[in-house]
């Protein structure tokens, strides 16, 4: 950021100044920056982990290192099936159950595709009350819940299959920006992850615009 300001001849801000400013940003600003407005009815919900350092826990275990890597950060997100944009995201300082973050992300009328980790009676009820639906593979004991049983009867594998698109989005984020964060404090770690999501959505928009213009130019020349 400091180098970008210098290149644009705005001002030469030291990186510590930028870091202090980022710390002061409230959470709702980062949620607004990283979100994407879409009218898609079908979305996918899932979570992934990001390491706090470049050395993974598995690597440290394999070399029998005395240095203990802290638990990973957890990123929960909702993406559009067709657009493959991240619509909403939530970052947690340590791994917790998927249902806790899903309650904060399921906020409007949509069809949510999720894995068995989100097969919870309260989530089915929350999606149903919003006018939408939560689709997950049935699991043992589903007959004990009213909304869970109702969702199991409507489960369709063809509708559920596009859920894997969210795995490709997580893979793209990690390949493009890395699977670990550089910041040490949670507030800056959260800002780093959400800014990556904002840049990812922006890149998708730019590439779509370039492809659209190229396709129309080719049709114009053919005409």
Question: How does this structure look, described?
Answer:
The protein is α/β, with parallel strands linked by helices and 223 residues long. The protein has a single domain (34-215), classed as Nucleotidyltransferase, domain 5, CATH 3.30.420. It contains 10 helices and 5 strands. It has helices at residues 2-7, 15-24, 27-34, 57-62, 98-105, 121-129, 146-153, 157-160, 165-177, 186-222; strands at 42-50, 73-80, 86-92, 111-113, 133-135. The chain has a 5-stranded mixed sheet, sandwiched between helices. Strand 2 (73-80) and strand 3 form a beta hairpin. Helix 3 (27-34) runs parallel beside helix 10 (186-222) and helix 6 (121-129) crosses helix 7. The protein is globular.
- Low-confidence runs of at least 5 consecutive residues: none
CATH fold name? Nucleotidyltransferase, domain 5
Helix content: 40-55%
Task: Give the biggest sheet.
Answer: 5 strands, mixed
Output mean pLDDT.
83
Instruction: Please report the total strand number as a whole number.
Output: 5
Alpha-beta classification:
alpha/beta
Strand order of the largest sheet: 3-2-1-4-5
User: Which CATH architecture is right?
Assistant: 2-Layer Sandwich
Query: What's the overall geometry?
Result: globular
Rounded to the nearest angstrom, the distance between the terminal CA atoms is: 45 Å
CATH class: Alpha Beta
The ordered H/E elements are HHHEHEEHEHEHHHH
Tell me the radius of gyration.
Answer: 20 Å
Alpha plus pi helix count:
10
Structural domains: how many: 1
């Amino acid at each position: 950021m400091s180098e970008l300001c210098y290149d644009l001849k705005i001002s030469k801000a030291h990186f510590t100044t930028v870091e202090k400013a980022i710390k002061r940003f409230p959470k709702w600003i980062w949620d607004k920056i990283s979100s994407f407005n879409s009218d898609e009815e079908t979305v996918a919900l899932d979570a992934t982990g990001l390491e706090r350092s470049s050395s993974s826990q598995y690597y440290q275990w394999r070399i029998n290192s005395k240095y203990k890597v802290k638990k990973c950060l957890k990123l929960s997100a909702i993406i559009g099936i067709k657009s493959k944009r991240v619509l909403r995201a939530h970052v947690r300082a340590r791994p917790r159950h998927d249902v806790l973050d899903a309650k904060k992300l399921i906020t409007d009328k949509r069809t949510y595709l999720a894995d068995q980790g989100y097969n919870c009676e309260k989530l089915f009820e929350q999606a149903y009350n919003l006018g939408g639906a939560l689709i997950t593979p049935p699991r043992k004991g589903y007959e004990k819940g009213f909304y869970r049983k109702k969702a199991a009867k409507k489960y369709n594998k063809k509708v559920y299959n596009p859920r894997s698109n969210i795995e490709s989005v997580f893979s793209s984020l990690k390949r493009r920006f890395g699977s670990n964060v550089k910041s040490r404090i949670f507030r800056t770690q959260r800002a780093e992850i959400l800014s990556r999501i904002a840049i990812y959505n922006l890149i998708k928009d730019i590439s779509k615009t370039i492809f659209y213009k190229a396709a129309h130019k080719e049709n114009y020349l053919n005409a």
